[in-house]
């Protein structure tokens, strides 16, 4: 009996060791965070009219980023378009990421005035911001006051959340009118406010752009809002501007996770 009890005690004492061996080791590596991309703008960013294929550049851009194997997360306080019943269908079994900060018909100053509140809902600070604003400010007499000053403020708010944020400002999709006077103002803003730590670059969406819907191969439905061809053009230009920053960010995060 003593031998049996001794064997039983030894078995019990070894049980925790056996269990410890059988348990998988916890993964102590930090999960790599996705690159947060914040699209800010007006109707050209929000889209979502149910009566036409107004998906905006966000739709083709998202899938181009995914196909290029970038781990990205679109962020923003909104998930819908102008019409609640507008839809963005999945592609190849991958659901579209609908988060954005596009506000149909809004001016630059209005976006600036609400950004602090919106950012409270974000899962994390943005790493890359795509700004396409000013279309609804073209009729203002003072474009510095209507566009440049509030855009400068927007960038300051973004940097307060992430001092290393990359800001890409899209030029307006017009090749005439007020856009021609706004364009050099945007270039000057980017030149003076950009830093090595937080670069600010412009994206020339107007190049190769056909805003006249009566053209043989138009890029818009109505002079302003991009049709699917225009949406793809914008996505391609955003992608080209984002790529060097995405490569750097993704490489840095992969190293940090080793």
Question: What does the model show?
Answer:
- The N terminus is likely disordered.
- The chain has one domain: 3-Layer(aba) Sandwich (Rossmann fold).
- Strands 1, 2, 3, 4, 5 and 6 form a six-stranded parallel sheet that branches.
- The chain has seven helices and six strands, in the order αβααββαβαβαβα.
- It is an alpha/beta fold and 258 residues long.
- 43% of the residues lie in helices and 10% in strands.
Name given to the CATH homologous superfamily: SGNH hydrolase
Please tally the β strands and state the result. Answer: 6
The CATH class turns out to be: Alpha Beta
End-to-end Cα distance: 55 Å
| Spans where pLDDT lies below 50 across 5 or more residues | 1-30
Task: Tell me roughly what share of residues is in helical segments.
Answer: 40-55%
């Amino acid at each position: 009996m003593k031998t049996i009890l001794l064997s039983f005690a030894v078995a019990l004492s070894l049980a925790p060791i056996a269990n410890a061996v059988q348990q998988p080791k916890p993964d102590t590596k930090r999960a790599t965070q996705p690159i947060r991309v914040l699209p800010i703008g007006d109707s050209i960013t929000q889209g979502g009219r149910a009566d036409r294929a107004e998906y905006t550049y966000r739709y083709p851009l998202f899938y181009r980023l995914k196909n290029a194997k970038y781990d990205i997360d679109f962020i923003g306080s909104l998930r819908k378009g102008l019409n609640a019943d507008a839809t963005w269908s999945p592609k190849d079994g991958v659901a579209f990421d609908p988060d954005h900060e596009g506000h149909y018909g809004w001016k630059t100053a209005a976006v600036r005035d609400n950004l602090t509140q919106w950012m409270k809902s974000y899962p994390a600070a943005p790493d890359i911001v795509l700004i396409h604003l000013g279309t609804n400010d073209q009729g203002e007499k003072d474009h510095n006051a209507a566009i440049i000053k509030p855009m400068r403020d927007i960038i300051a708010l973004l940097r307060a959340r992430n001092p290393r944020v990359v800001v890409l400002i899209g030029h307006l999709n017009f090749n005439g009118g007020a856009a021609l006077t706004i364009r050099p103002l945007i270039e000057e803003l980017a030149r003076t406010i950009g830093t090595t730590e937080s670069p600010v670059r412009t994206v020339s969406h107007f190049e190769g752009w056909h805003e006249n819907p009566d053209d043989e191969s138009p890029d818009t439905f109505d002079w302003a809002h991009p049709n699917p061809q225009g949406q793809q053009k914008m996505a391609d230009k955003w992608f080209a501007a984002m790529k060097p920053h995405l490569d750097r960010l993704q490489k840095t995060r992969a190293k940090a996770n080793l």
